[in-house]
Design brief:
The structure holds two protein chains of two kinds.
Chain A: H1 8-11, E1 16-19, E2 24-27, H2 34-38, E3 49-53, H3 71-80, E4 88-91, H4 102-116, E5 124-125, H5 130-133, H6 139-145, E6 150-154, E7 157-161, H7 174-185, E8 192-196, H8 215-222, E9 227-232, E10 239-243, E11 246-250, E12 283-289, E13 292-301
Chain B: H1 3-28, E1 33-40, E2 43-45, E3 48-51, E4 57-63, E5 68-72, E6 77-81, E7 87-91, E8 97-102, E9 115-120
Parallel strand pairs in B: 1-4, 3-9
Antiparallel strand pairs in B: 1-2, 4-7, 5-6, 8-9
The chains are: A alpha/beta, B alpha/beta.
Pfam family, one (chain B): Cupredoxin_1
Subcellular location (chain B): Periplasm
Main location (chain B): periplasm
Chain lengths: ~300, ~120
Amino acid sequence: MKQAHAGAQAISRRSFLRLAGLGGAIYVSGLSGWSSAAALPGGANEDFFFIQLSDTHWGFEGAPNPDAHGTLQKAVAAVNSLEQVPDFIVFTGDLTHTTDDPQERRQRLREFKDIAAGLKVKNVHFMPGEHDASLDHGEAYQEFFGKTHYSFAHKGVNFIVIDNVSDPTGAIGETQLAWLADELRQLPPQARIVVFTHRPLFDLYPQWDWATRDGAKAVELLQAHANVTVFYGHIHQEHHHMTGHIAHHAAKSLIFPLPAPGSQPKRTPLPWDDAYPYRGLGYRQVAAEAAKPMDYQLTELPVLKG
Amino acid sequence: MDIHHKRRLLLAGAAAGGLAVATRLVLAQTPERVIKIVAKKFDFTPGEIRLKKNQPVTLEFTTLDVVMGFNLPDFAIRTDILPGATSRLRFTPDKSGEFPFHCDVFCGSGHESMTGTVIVT
């Protein structure tokens, strides 16, 4: 996992489990610029880790995941079983699958929230995906989870949640960009910043709408800071990309994997494989060796928890 | 045949000649293509649009239900499609191949499958 590279020293202390869809267990010591920022005066280096869960699509039914009603619970059980307790958990959108019925949308959000309440870690942050918020501009989502964009700090790291889905055109919008600029103005250039979004902020594959219409404006604002890492969802697969010095990492989905950008004519879900249930959704174990910090071996393991 | 009659024939001949030239000019200019595309959840009709390289075309969009978007990233063109209105995109494809287009205004469950292909030969 790319965000672990710079944190090879921390990661080499142990291997860690990743849930696909989670984006995984993320040690902040592995984030871009962490080491250099920590070396600055007053730059404490208190390592911690958090879990990213993504694209649960509660309410989806279909062949790409015959266990659509059980996968989220398995993820909750898996996170609860981790020996090392994460500091917090973040869901990067598409908590629910779209419905045109506003009442059904609320019912799905309610059920999702009830299941997520089963997480032992109570420090949980949410954000919407287009399936949750685009049809009503985030109205139902906000009834259950509050603001769609916000910031918080944790152990010296500044986390910023950007909403690029409540506008059905997939734009952040000038108002929110002004808010982002104001947030960033309050942070020193060397501040450690982690951004969560649902859609990629860069043009990953606009042909499949894997982009944010005004994402370049957000990236331009973030470029002024030396230590920025972005985690996002939406594309249901692992993907890593750099815009200048900013690293962007995509999480897998907890409902079904999607194809690599442009790898097939349409972005239809990859089929469920009976011979390998939960392929692309199961645990991942990432092991790093201190002698070869850039050499990672990823092994996907079957889902066992839950 | 008196002089007046000859003159009328000459004028008529000249007019006929002029009409023939005008007809040839009109025939030489192929009228620009207008392709009507109808959007509805979660479909574009036609879903396959065949164009000729370097020949200008106007795409004309309407929607039968909600707000849609048409985005053809490979040619950097897009438009919103609003109920009760007609949106138009005029462009000249300058490269050949198959290029995907999609709805880029989230319109419900199934939005992701609202795609099509522009084929330029």
